[in-house]
Write a structure and sequence with these properties.
The protein is an alpha/beta fold. The chain contains 5 helices and 4 strands. About 40% of the residues lie in helices and about 15% in strands. The chain has a 4-stranded parallel sheet.
Length: about 140
């Protein structure tokens, strides 16, 4: 991999989980990473995801909900699928692109009171944050010689 590692987070609709992952990676990764997120479809930005990330001090309101394209896949060093649907529907990746799968629960499908729904969003946000930290650490470790 080059000096900057290109990471693409891929989800079904690019509205919650992949958006959170992009926000965490930008926040934690500094200049070592180029980070994008995309979806198999574009469902728009989820206001609860924006609010819950803001509570963690990360502004994702300027990120766009986009559909994955060939150029994104060709630029990527690592593609992280954050749901089963995206993993199953992931286009064929170019040679040398590392694929990682995170089977995350979709907080947008949570039901119950607003408090219960927001609890699901917080839990997903925190899990995504832990996974992004682990990924960035893995990607910055020196290879064994």
């Amino acid at each position: 991999m080059g000096d900057v590692v290109n990471i693409l987070f891929l989800c079904t609709g690019n509205s919650c989980r992949s958006q959170m992952a992009e926000g965490w990676a930008r926040h934690l990764g500094g200049g070592l990473f180029s980070v994008k997120s995309a979806g198999i479809e574009a469902h728009g930005k989820n206001p609860r995801a924006i609010a819950i990330m803001s509570d963690a001090g990360i502004d994702i309101s300027g990120q766009e909900s986009t559909i994955v394209d060939t150029a994104m896949l060709e630029e990527a060093d690592v593609v992280v699928t954050v749901c089963g649907h995206a993993d199953e529907q992931c286009p064929v990746l170019p040679a040398g692109v590392e694929k990682v799968h995170w089977p995350l629960t979709d907080p947008a499908k949570a039901s119950g009171s607003e408090e219960q729904i927001m609890r699901e969003f917080r839990e997903t946000r925190d899990e995504v944050g832990r996974r992004v930290r682990d990924l960035l650490q893995h990607l910055t470790e020196e290879p064994a010689t």
